[in-house]
Amino acid sequence: MRYKSLLLALPLVWGAANAAEGVVHHKLNGMPISESVEISGNKNIIFLSGKVPAKISKDAPEGVLASYGNTEAQTISVMEQIKAHLAELGLEMKDVVKMQVFLVGGDETNGTMDFAGFMAGYSKFYNDKDSGNALPARSTFQVAKLANPAWRVEIEVTAVRP
Predict the structure, then answer these.
(1) Is the pTM of this model over 0.85?
(2) Where is the signal peptide (predicted)?
(3) For FRET with 113, which of 72, 100, 135, 154 sits at 20 to 30 Å CA-CA?
């Protein structure tokens, strides 16, 4: 009876031992994202507040789309800010495990979010070729507005310290 209990518990111990090794990404076929990400219990989880695009020029006027660029340019701006903040924390983009993306559709896109523009910017940071298995799980939403009428992109991420 003792051996039977030990044998029944063995898969649980084995699974816990594997999970303790770190972060496991389960890739979503056909997209540069993970369908899910597993994090062991001994990792630090870091939540970054939403980042919004910086003005293309400090002299550019507020609230004007040309001051921030199109969705692709804004995505690159936001991702660069995320990358810089992660670096300050001793982390990299590969440490991001979850991303939430908020896109606004403006007059220039007939009120529909520019998902292709977002993906063009996103793919400069995460893609099937360069990212390997370290792709974040991701959700993308179209929202009515962000705090500045010229912003088309806000991104928040969750990272894990290896």
Answers:
(1) no
(2) 1-19
(3) 135
